[in-house]
Amino acid sequence: MSQYANYPSLRDRPVVISGGATGIGAGLVRHFAAQGARVGFVDIAVDEGHALAAELQAEGQSVLFTPADVTDTETFQAAIAGFAASHGAARVLVNNAAHDQRHDWREVTPAYWDERIAVNLKHFFFAIQAVAPGMQAAGGGSIINFGSISWMIMTPSIPIYETAKAAVHGLTRSMAHELGRDGIRVNSLVPGAVMTQRQRDLWITPEDISAIQAHQALPGLLGPDDCARMALFLAADDSAMISGQHFLVDAGWANT
Among all residues, which ones are annotated catalytic? Predict the structure, then answer.
């Protein structure tokens, strides 16, 4: 990663990341740790989370993993408190955890609706609630909420996911106002079609890749690193006067 920017303000900065064991989340953990940040992350992928933390710890990086289901608010907030006890109160929160499970709108039940909203939106708010007092006491911080271009391009078969991701924009704008006077910045990072292993295994076909290439303005395929580099900028002091904004990392696909 030496060809990319280094952010001195991130060294020793406590960072909390949800869904950090695999995919985009693992990319976030690796990049923040490489900057010298003190990273705490949660995930339900226990084996992968422990393996990633052990790998980075062996390299001398300050990384902690706590198994936690973000839909269990009490457990999730307790994990955040545990990271604060070890690393200091979070100065950066990356709300990344989500799940784009396909579903037929005609078969959605109230229970399924609530479960999907819990996975894709609810925990963002309660993570903010958990870290905000520490950021206020420290004089500021950065909160990065992961959205998606899916609702902008009307991706089929994920209407609840798209509803939640559209709502992330409202949450970002409202909390940017609520917390801004305390020096806390709140922004959305909005990925396009990121080629994680999970996406390749479950959803992406060769035909999909061709369609993605046709829609993007830039050639090539997005990876977790592309999202992580934007997250680093939004977390660092370099973005000190940016808040309430939505940053698309989609190779020029969505038209907002």
Answer: 161
Report pLDDT for 178: 98
CATH code, 11-249: 3.40.50.720
> Contact 184/132 with Cβ under 8 angstroms?
yes
111 pLDDT more than 90: yes
Q: Look over the chain and give the mean of its residue pLDDT values, rounded to a whole number.
A: 96
| Token pair recorded at residue 58 | 């062996």
Largest CA distance in the chain: 51
- The structure's pTM equals 0.96
Ramachandran angles phi, psi of 246, nearest 5°:
-125, 120
Q: Could you tell me where the beta strands, DSSP code E, fall in the chain?
A: 14-18, 38-43, 63-67, 92-95, 141-146, 184-191, 246-249
Residue ranges of domains in the chain: 11-249
> What backbone torsions phi and psi does residue 254 show, to the nearest 5 degrees?
-70, 145
